[in-house]
Protein: Sulfur relay protein, TusE/DsrC/DsvC family
Amino acid sequence: MTMQYKIGDIVAEHDEEGYLTDITVWNKDLALLIAKSENIEMTPEHWEVVDFLREYYEEYQIAPAIRILVKEMKKKFGPEKGDQKYLYQLFPYGPAKQACKIGGLPKPTGCV
Structure:
C-alpha cells in the first residue's frame, strides 16, 4: 500500500514504513516533515548525518547498514561522530534506518 507525504503543492508517495518510493522528489522541506513523523527535531548534527548518507548513496548507489555508516562517519568526521552511541542519540530508532528515511533514501541493506 502506498501512502503520501504532502507539503504545499508537493505530494510524495512512500511505502508502509515511510520510505519514499521516488527519491528524486526529496527536498529539505520534505525531510523536515518526515523527521517530524519520526519525532525528530532536526539539528545541524542530524543534517550532517543525512547529508553524509545522501552523498554516500550518490557515490555508491546503496544506503549503508549501521556498521558501514559508523565506519565511514569515523573516517570523515572523527571518532566522536563515528560512534554508534552518538548516532543512536540522534536517531534512536536506528541511525541508518531513520536517517535514510529522512534523507529520502531507500531502506539500508541488512535492516529489518
User: Anything to note?
Assistant: Residues 49 and 99 are 7 Å apart (CA to CA).
